């Protein structure tokens, strides 16, 4: 049997570091805000193929345009309307769901659809980079 104890003295500075680097490195996360293949287009595996090709191409194009390479892709899929099948087929990782409120809704005043959150790492050490632990 084992236990893990985290003292306040070590936890608070670590939390402050994580929150500081979250804002500092947020630009390294690219959001896929829209993805649509019209219903009459019937090509097997088209959606997952497009997502895979975009994920491969995006870092280089982004660097040419903006001067840096992103490390992570994210997208939000409305649970009641879509299953997220193409994201799973393209190896995106389902990490959880939203609470059904907007990012600026601090008092839960506006009810929005619950969405699944999918991530696609572009580099293996994306966590360390986002936390500022790796160059």
Structure overview:
The chain has a domain at 31-124: 3-Layer(aba) Sandwich (Aminopeptidase). The chain is an alpha+beta fold and 135 residues long. Helix 2 links the parallel strand 1 and strand 2 (72-78). The protein has helices at 8-24, 46-66, 85-89, 126-130; strands at 29-31, 72-78, 93-97, 115-121. Strands 1-2-4-3 form a four-stranded mixed beta sheet, with no helix packed on it. The N and C termini lie far apart (37 Å).
List the helices and strands and how they pair.
Elements: H1 8-24, E1 29-31, H2 46-66, E2 72-78, H3 85-89, E3 93-97, E4 115-121, H4 126-130
Parallel strand pairs: 1-2
Antiparallel strand pairs: 2-4, 3-4
Distance between the termini: 37 Å
Count all strands and give the number.
4
Gyration radius (Cα, Å) is 18 Å
Supply the CATH architecture of the domain at 31-124. Answer: 3-Layer(aba) Sandwich
Largest sheet: 4 strands, mixed
Number of helices: 4
Poorly predicted runs of 5 or more residues: 1-11
Shape, please? globular
- Could you say what the CATH topology of the domain at 31-124 is called? Aminopeptidase
Helix content class? 25-40%
Beta-sheet strand percentage?
Answer: 15-25%
What string gives the helices and strands in order?
A: HEHEHEEH
CATH homology superfamily of the domain at 31-124: Gcn5-related N-acetyltransferase (GNAT)
How are strands sequenced across the largest beta sheet? Answer: 1-2-4-3
Please identify the top-level CATH class of the domain at 31-124.
Answer: Alpha Beta
Structural class of the helix and strand makeup? alpha+beta
The residue-averaged pLDDT reads: 80
């Amino acid at each position: 049997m084992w236990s893990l104890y985290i003292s306040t003295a070590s936890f608070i500075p670590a939390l402050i570091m994580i929150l500081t680097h979250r804002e500092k490195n947020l630009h390294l996360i690219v959001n896929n805000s829209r993805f649509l293949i019209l219903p009459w287009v019937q090509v097997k595996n088209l959606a997952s193929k497009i997502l895979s090709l975009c994920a491969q191409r995006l870092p280089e194009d982004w660097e040419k345009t903006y001067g840096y390479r992103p490390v992570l892709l994210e997208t939000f899929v409305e649970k009641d309307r879509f299953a997220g099948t193409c994201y799973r087929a393209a190896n995106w990782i389902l990490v959880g769901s939203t609470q059904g409120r907007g990012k600026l809704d601090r008092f839960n005043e506006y009810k929005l659809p619950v969405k699944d959150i999918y991530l696609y790492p572009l580099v293996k050490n994306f966590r360390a980079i986002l936390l500022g632990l790796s160059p």
